[in-house]
Amino acid sequence: MTTGMAVLLGLIQGFTEFLPVSSSGHLVLAQSLMGGFSQPGLLFDTLLHLATLFAVLLFFRERVKNLMLAFFGIFFQQYRIVYYQNKNFLWGIIIASIPTAVIGLSLEKSAEHFFTTPSFVGYFLILTSLLLVFSDKMKPRGELTLPQSFIIGIVQGIAVIPGISRSGSTVAAGLFLGVKREDMAEFSFLMSVPAIFGAALLQVRHLETLPTDQLPAYGAGMLAAFISGLFAISFMVYFIKKANLKIFALYCLVLGITAIIWM
């Protein structure tokens, strides 16, 4: 893999990770068109996801800081006020992470198979398109609850399959369940933090098989994903709040059909 390939894939990952169009699906399709691309396991894909995780932490740094203090508030009295102010999101993320981890581990081998099958990605992109179309019609006004968080966590676990957008499917699930758009816009991004971190830990075993001459390419790809991810987050938050996801639904539909027919 050349540095140019890595940067291009990093830009694709960064821009599509937070848009409801499936970043993993785009990586599969892009990699299938690149001659000479190879990686140990899914290491490169996971490192790109890790770079976008850093983008989430930077963009939502104030909320992340408050959530960390709220966690300490479970055990220490001096942080109890911060805990009560953030407990819904804190426990929501913890509860959502449980089914995400269980399902993600169960689907890990199957997902790796899908990463080599572009036509499967096409079918799941069409599924993402349908989810976006129907959820965009919802007008929810409720607060996030723990049972809702658990269901959204299940959806995030299933979204390990390339072609199913993690951000799109979790936002859609929350809207179907009646969660306010502004809450889902933030919760969808924040709940990705433990999920991406966990996936990165699973791929650490492949680090020893990474040729040292590929390190500059991997680093360049991660930097590209981080920078483009920052732009994509603010862009996506705006569209979720404005209830205007139809353009992404149309894009997923066209790309899905193209992948099925031509790849």
UniProtKB/TrEMBL annotation:
> Which is a Gene Ontology cellular component entry for this protein?
plasma membrane
Determine if Transcription is one of this entry's keywords: no
Where in the cell is the protein located?
Answer: Cell membrane
Which key words are in the record? Antibiotic resistance, Cell membrane, Cell shape, Cell wall biogenesis/degradation, Hydrolase, Membrane, Peptidoglycan synthesis, Transmembrane, Transmembrane helix
Name residues in a coiled coil.
none
Give any single GO term for biological process. Answer: peptidoglycan biosynthetic process
Q: Which residues cross the membrane?
A: 40-60, 67-83, 89-107, 114-134, 146-164, 185-204, 216-238, 245-262
Kindly indicate whether the keyword Cell wall biogenesis/degradation belongs to this entry: yes
Cite the EC number.
Answer: 3.6.1.27
Outline what the protein does: Catalyzes the dephosphorylation of undecaprenyl diphosphate (UPP). Confers resistance to bacitracin.
Q: Could you say which protein family the record assigns here? A: Belongs to the UppP family.
Can you say what this protein is called?
Answer: Undecaprenyl-diphosphatase
